[in-house]
Amino acid sequence: MFIWKIQGIRSLSFVFAKLMSEVLRRIGADFIVPVPPRPGKIQSKGWDQIDELCNYLKYWFGFKVIEVLERISSVQQKGLDKKSRIDGVGKNYRLKTKKELKSILKPFGGAFPKRVTVVDDVTTTGSTLESCSLVLKQGGVEFVQGVTIFIVD
After folding, report:
1. Per residue in 66-119, pLDDT tens?
2. Euclidean distance between CA atoms 7 and 130, whole angstroms
3. Cα distance between residue 75 and residue 131, in whole Å
4. Is the C-alpha dihedral spanning 114, 60, 70, 93 positive or negative?
5. Which residues sit opposite 119 in a β-bridge?
6. Are 119 and 57 in contact (CB under 8 A)?
7. For the chain, how many helices (H) and strands (E)?
8. Helix, strand or coil for residue 121?
9. How many angstroms separate the CA atoms of 22 and 89, rounded?
10. DSSP string covering 38-107, please?
11. Nearest to residue 22, comparing CAs of 147, 151, 120?
C-alpha cells in the first residue's frame, strides 16, 4: 500500500482495479460510489488513488461509477484515533448539490440506484464507509456495501 498510495507508484492502480473488479463482480456490485478525497488532497499530492482506481473500474471493467459524494472535512483520517474516527461518522461527507445530483443521476433514470457499493482504498475502523453509507441512505439508496483494497488494524 505504501508504495502505491504514499510514493505514488501509479502503475499499481490497474493491478488493484483488476483485483477489485473480481471481488465486485462476485458480490454483484454494478454501481460504484467512490469515497471522495479531502479538500486540497489532489492539489498537494497530484492525484487521488480512488479516482484513478474508479476510472479503471469504469473504463476497463465496465462498472457504473456515480460520484455523488463530497467530503466536508479536510482532516486526514490517519491522524485520528479510533474514538475520533467513530465520533466523526455522519459529519465528514454529504451529497453533492441538487443541481449536480440531477446531472450525475440523469444517465441512471434521475434517481439513485437501489444498491450501491462504496469503494475506498483502506479501512481501519470502518467509519469512512459507515459515514458514506449513512449519507447515501439518507439520499434514497436502500442497500449500501463497501469494498476496500486494504484493511489496517
Report:
1. 999 999 865 555 565 556 555 555 678 999 999 999 999 999 899 999 999 999
2. 28
3. 14
4. positive
5. 34, 147
6. yes
7. 6, 6
8. strand
9. 29
10. PTTHHHHHS--HHHHHHHHHHHTT--EE---EEE-----GGGS-HHHHHHTTTTSEEEPPHHHHHHHHGG
11. 147
Query: d(Cα 94, Cα 131) in Å, to the nearest integer?
Result: 9
Distances (CA, A) of 153 to 49, 77, 123, 133, 147: 21, 14, 8, 21, 16
Task: Say if residues 42 and 50 touch (Cβ distance below 8 Å).
Answer: no
* pLDDT recorded at residue 88: 58
Cα–Cα dist 76/74, whole Å: 6
Q: Is the pLDDT of residue 46 over 90?
A: no
Q: What would the grid cell of residue 97 be?
A: 448539490
Q: Is the pLDDT of residue 18 over 80?
A: yes
